[in-house]
Amino acid sequence: MITTLAVQGYRSLHQLVMPLAPVTLVTGENGSGKTSLYRSLRLLAATSREGVVEPLARDGGLERILWAGPEVISGAMRRGEVPIQGAHKRHKPVSLLLGVVQDDLGYLVDIGLPPPSTKTLFSHDPVIKREEVFAPPLFRPASRLVSRKGGRVITHAGAHTRMLEEYLPARTSMLAEFADPEQTPELLNLRRAMAGWRFYDAFRTDVQAPARQRCLTTWTPVLAEDGRDLAAALGSIRESAWAGPLDQAITSAFPGTELAVDDADGQLILRVHQPGMLRPLTADELSDGTLRFLLLAAALLSPQPPGLLVVNEPETSLHPDVLPVLADLIVHVSKRTQVLVVSHSRELIAPLKDAGGEDTVIHHHLVKNLGQTRIEGQGLFSTPRWEWGSR
Ligand SMILES: Nc1ncnc2c1ncn2[C@@H]1O[C@H](COP(=O)(O)OP(=O)(O)O)[C@@H](O)[C@H]1O
Ligand SMILES: [Mg+2]
User: Fold this and answer.
1) Boundary (domain end) residue, out of 278, 305, 332
2) Is position 187 within any domain?
3) How many domains does the chain have?
4) How far does residue 344's CA lie from ligand 2's centre (Å)?
5) What is the pTM of this model?
6) Which protein residue has the closest C-alpha to ligand 1 atom 27?
7) Which residue, 21, 25, 49, is CA-closest to 37?
8) Residues 74, 172 within the same domain
9) In a domain, 88, yes or no
10) Are residues 78 and 180 in the same domain?
11) Looking at the structure, do residues 121 and 257 belong to the same domain, yes or no?
12) Enclosing domain of residue 134
């Protein structure tokens, strides 16, 4: 299980350390930093597979996503005695830090820019300055298991160190490069875990939405990010151990409704039998709310569950009556998959707490203070300790 997430320097996430539970609900007003949190997690997962350049380019580039506030916020600025100010020119080197603690392993990555002295056409392309795999709870020089500085990768076993690589490419993560279960099982474990994280962001439900189209008849244990293979994913769940929970969720959300997935010449059609209807409705005829509920159910009940499932704003266009059913479903799957729900409304928290209790569910409400995202009510003692170390 992932217990802690840490971000420094990603948009409004100037410094954020967040404890996670089997179910974590993150809420906040517009502009409080919810999407930034979602994206920083997605970036962390992508970096472990693809390195830094492409994922950051998809995000708009390093310069744009770096914290744009002052490097240091003084006490006088906090008290409002002086305006927020700081040199526009940076004093410290560019640094975006992402970290996670999962089970008995901690990982952090420090992303920056090539040294100004390097002659390169790509001086704005991000590079990985440092990576650390450490024994939790905290990164310390003594808790290092594998570390990377520039191109050098070193494993640590007590006082013994061994160089694994001297010239690791600057844009590649060491997690992507070393997959030897004998030499570096930690790297393999972390990469497998992080590569499996799954992200679903506000599914489209408009007339042209991919989820409303037919799809190929193939076993689909993982719903596509845009939901284009919804019928195949639901069909696959119905042939798995999760058929019962799926049917139960649909009946609780929409009493009397039954789902069928039919094959028509190699293409799958979703048919939804609703009470009072003389014929079943197909995916292109369903209401936005019904379609979105089916998409969420398909994502949650995947027969190939990921370690972490992150869902952005699932409540959009759902009827409030359906939220408790969604909450039940989230708590049900959290026994095998950790779930992080990013939501605009606090309305989900009551049904989630009812379904899961305080041991299973944690709620973080984000607020913005002096341009920085903070967790409401988080103080010195409730903030998990975190150390980044230095380059
Ligand atoms: N580079 C940056 N540095 C600091 N703050 C930023 C940066 N880019 C965007 N922001 C701010 O981050 C805030 C959070 O945005 P976002 O995560 O999209 O909020 P939400 O999803 O909660 O509505 C916005 O208010 C925006 O002003
Ligand atoms: Mg948002």
Assistant:
1) 305
2) yes
3) 2
4) 8
5) 0.93
6) 31
7) 25
8) yes
9) yes
10) yes
11) no
12) 2-23+33-197+366-375
Q: Which residues line ligand 1 (CB under 6 A)?
A: 11-12, 28, 30-36, 65-69, 371
Query: Same domain, yes or no, for 47 and 115?
Result: yes
The Å distance, Cα 37 to ligand 1 centre, comes to: 10
- The rounded Å distance from CA 170 to ligand 1 centre is 28
| Ligand 1 atom having least distance to the Cα of 66 | 1
163 inside domain: yes
pLDDT band (50, 70, 90) for residue 116: confident
Same domain, 147 and 226: no
- Indicate which atom in ligand 1 lies nearest the CA of residue 29: 22
| Average pLDDT of the segment spanning 235-260 | 96
| Cβ–Cβ < 8 Å for 200, 339 | no
**208-232 as b/e, with b when 16 or more CB fall inside 10 Å?**
ebebbebbebeebebbbeebbbbbb
Q: For residue 85, what are the CA distances in angstroms to 77, 79, 95, 130, 344? A: 8, 13, 20, 29, 31
- Classify residue 340: in a domain, yes or no: no
142 and 241 co-located in one domain: no
Contact criterion met (CB below 8 Å) for 3 and 18: no
Does 218 lie in the same domain as 193?
no
Q: What percent of the chain has pLDDT over 90?
A: 78
Ligand 1 pocket test, pick from 16, 25, 30, 36 with the greatest ligand atom count within 8 Å of Cβ, gives 36
Say whether pLDDT at 47 is over 70.
yes
Q: Are residues 183 and 217 in the same domain?
A: no
Q: Do 296 and 326 contact (CB within 8 A), yes or no? A: yes
In this predicted structure, which of 17-21, 122-126, 203-207, 256-260 has the lowest mean pLDDT? Answer: 122-126
**In the listed set 305, 331, 356, which residue is the last one of a domain according to the structure?**
305
Residue nearest to atom 26 of ligand 1 (CA): 31
**CA 145 → CA 142, 185, 283, 341, distances in Å?**
9, 10, 50, 31
Cα–Cα distance for residue pair 258/260, rounded to 1 Å? 7
Ligand 1 mean position, distance from CA 278 (Å)? 49
